[in-house]
Amino acid sequence: MKRARIYHRGRDIWVSVSADGQSLHLPDGSFIPADGASWLPPVTPGASSYALGLNFADHNKELGFAPKLATPLIFMKGGNCFVGHEGDTPRPADGNQMHPECELVAVIGRPARNVTSAEALDYVAGYTVANDYAIREYLENYYRPNARVKNRDATTPIGPWIVDAADVPDPQALAITTRVNGELVQNGTTADMIMSVAELVAYLSCHSTLMPGDMILTGTPQGVHFCAPGDRVVTEVEGIGRLVNHLVAG
Amino acid sequence: MICNGHIYGVILNDSRELARLAPAFQEKPYLAPPVAPVVYMKPASTMSHGTVRLKPGEQAVAAATLALLIARDATGVSPDQAMACIGAAALAIDITYPQADYYRPAVAQRNADTFLVMGDWGSPALADRITTMIDGQAAHNWSLDRLARSPDRLIADISAFLTLRAGDVLLVGLPGDAPQVGAGVTLRAEAAGFAPAVARVEETT
């Protein structure tokens, strides 16, 4: 099953998405067409979101870092940075080195504290897709990647929906692609993640309790491609979803 | 209690610490002084309910500060407009395991359960001098005059790229000379006009 969050007649609601993706099942039992829905980030308000840097060896090499870091590079993101499917993301006038980063997102389903990798996936409720844009001009070497790069308003498209974990037999065997105006700029697979979803859940749960709705953006493969206002950026994770974003001058 | 908001804080906002580290800022891994506010977040699970729990044998830094509750979204505000976005204020003690440097985000150090101690919320105000008591003895005190970015300037500079939203909490800065504590003590932050922030420090079991 897929769950999405939409804006509908004056409020935000969670809906389920039909198997063919064509209609949305509302809490009151009625249906509306998926086409034209106002998609919101499928994010629980107030939930904690963690994101991985440098979690793909090919991307690390591309950026000039070691294939595997001694400790995982993890930062947090606020709800301000999320924007839903078909939303707009502002590209600042001086953000010439702004690039998309397609990522698999794991959504936690129940409190996870000191769990092992072997049991970690039992704590994952589902998966979605994020595009964790970066603007390289704003990088500073303090808590890098710093908030001015990674916690900007509306610079992390996420969605369109959350796919139940039960419908994702192996989160480490999914193709990851990004297309900018139709051109393929990222073409990787979750098989190349340095720390797997299970290892990330286990690692984070040893530092603090992960709660239902918390999210882990698991990192991106190689393919740094700088974008411009007007670009249509489509990030897709196989079997999870295809997330469309529009870059606008900001 | 924070329900739907996020907890943000900033490091490197103590002018004394900035002065002390100024030579290091020219060296690796930094190579240049910080320009934008250096923001961190604490998950809701860090909220203490009267105890701070440390890993056995570990020490942690206990940094008393001021927490501001955002009541109106702050996007691109000027310092003049910033304080109108604040709805409440409280004392807080931000706990972290010591960090070797400030190069990489410190999720493993800052995010442990119970690592944020808060006093009760009161009307918006700026504490004058915040004192940290350990087992009833004054162990540290500092004045918010030491902040390199005053709260209004800090909110303005963060809001240039990150909307502080109604319901979010902002910790305005940490003293670079905050004391370290181990299990077995009682921590208490005090300031005139504010409810204290109090917690017992224990070991995880």
UniProtKB/TrEMBL annotation, chain A:
InterPro entries: Fumarylacetoacetase-like_C, Fumarylacetoacetase_C_sf, HPA_isomer/decarb_C. GO terms for molecular function: 5-carboxymethyl-2-hydroxymuconate delta-isomerase activity; 5-oxopent-3-ene-1,2,5-tricarboxylate decarboxylase activity; metal ion binding. The keyword Metal-binding applies. Pfam families: FAA_hydrolase. Its EC number is 4.1.1.68, 5.3.3.-. GO terms for biological process: 4-hydroxyphenylacetate catabolic process. Keywords: Isomerase, Lyase, Metal-binding. Residues 50-247 form the Fumarylacetoacetase-like C-terminal domain. Belongs to the FAH family. This is 5-oxopent-3-ene-1,2,5-tricarboxylate decarboxylase/2-hydroxyhepta-2,4-diene-1,7-dioate isomerase. It comes from Sphingobium vermicomposti.
Automatic annotation (TrEMBL), chain B:
InterPro entries: Fumarylacetoacetase-like_C, Fumarylacetoacetase_C_sf. One of its GO terms (molecular function) is isomerase activity. This is 5-oxopent-3-ene-1,2,5-tricarboxylate decarboxylase/2-hydroxyhepta-2,4-diene-1,7-dioate isomerase. Keywords: Isomerase, Lyase, Metal-binding. It comes from the Bacteria. Residues 7-201 form the Fumarylacetoacetase-like C-terminal domain. Its EC number is 4.1.1.68, 5.3.3.-. Pfam families: FAA_hydrolase (PF01557).
